[in-house]
Specification:
The chain has a 7-stranded mixed β-sheet. The chain has a single domain, classed as 4-Layer Sandwich (Metallo-beta-lactamase, Chain A). With 280 residues, it is α/β, with parallel strands linked by helices. A hairpin with a 2-residue loop joins β12 and β13. It is globular, with a radius of gyration of 17 Å.
Length: 280
């Protein structure tokens, strides 16, 4: 496959290039020359205009993978499926749960919009794929399914609950990540990585037998991480063979800065409009 690249374009993020609009969300388009995969769809109104500004044709999407069921990753599902009506959808069945964040006693819904859940529920059975274990897409990309939580210092990183009273914690077990194999190593893309980035890296390297990580890209949900967690995370990441890290979305500016100062590999914050390529 010499001369063919894996191309990844960030379409939704908390930061954006001048030609794009920022939002609290995440979406990334991955193209390999033989397939087009959209990983997450952002929060609501920026996916289509950002794609248009970047010359991205979303009608080419053949696989839509949802990292988990939060609104800031599923808000653009209806827009995508209207442009790519034959696209297959991949997600964990837990993504449909009603769920909330509770801060200062106020519960706010974090579940996917009702119109999105209705659209997904109406899809033919052969178009929606529930991922409850590691899986491989027709194009060869891997999906983790639920990630084992092994580290003692990583958690979901936020006040998430399955009820409005805060009695039932939400471990966000539907969290999953996606990876591609390239000549430079694995390219691993996370939506929010509620399972923990170290847990996810350990799992993917175990599943693939590949220790070289060409790039780690996406949201790592460290915006509320304690200094102790950041320190442990950096110690663990430095033990991996990572080419570059591109933190996005919910990683948080403090964590991204800590990464840049303490990780052994280059760290470059992501943004909507960013495009990176890797040889296949």
């Amino acid at each position: 496959m010499n001369g063919i690249n894996l191309s990844l374009t960030i379409l939704s993020d908390n930061n954006a290039a001048e030609c794009c609009t920022a939002e609290h969300g995440f979406a990334a388009l991955i193209e390999t020359g033989t397939c087009t995969v959209l990983f997450d769809t952002g929060r609501e109104n920026v996916l289509l205009p950002n794609a248009a500004a970047l010359g991205v044709d979303l009608s080419e999407v053949r696989q839509l993978v949802l990292s988990h069921g939060h609104y800031d990753h599923t808000g653009g599902v209806c827009d995508v499926l209207s442009l790519a009506p034959e696209a297959d959808v991949y997600l964990h069945p837990g993504a449909f749960r009603k769920r909330y964040s509770i801060r200062e006693g106020i519960a706010k819904p974090t579940f996917m919009p009702e119109k999105v859940s209705a659209t997904l529920a109406a899809l033919p059975e052969n178009r929606i794929n529930f991922i409850e274990q590691p899986s491989v897409l027709p194009c060869g990309a891997g999906i983790t399914g639920p990630v084992p939580r092994q580290t003692g210092f990583e958690d979901t990183g936020g006040p998430f609950y399955l009820d409005t009273e805060g009695a039932i914690p939400d471990a966000i077990e539907d969290d999953l990540s996606i990876w591609f194999e390239t000549r430079d190593g694995l390219v691993l893309i996370a939506g929010c990585c509620h399972s923990g980035i170290v847990n996810t890296l350990r799992y993917v390297t175990e599943l693939t037998g590949r220790n070289r990580i060409a790039a780690l890209i996406g949201g790592f949900h460290l915006s509320t991480a304690s200094p102790e967690r950041l320190n442990r995370t950096v110690e663990e990441l430095n033990a991996f063979d990572i080419g570059r890290i591109i933190p996005c979305h919910c990683t948080g500016e403090t964590a991204a800065l800590y990464f840049r100062r303490n990780l052994h590999c280059p760290v470059e914050p992501g943004y909507a409009g960013m495009k990176v390529e890797f040889p296949l």
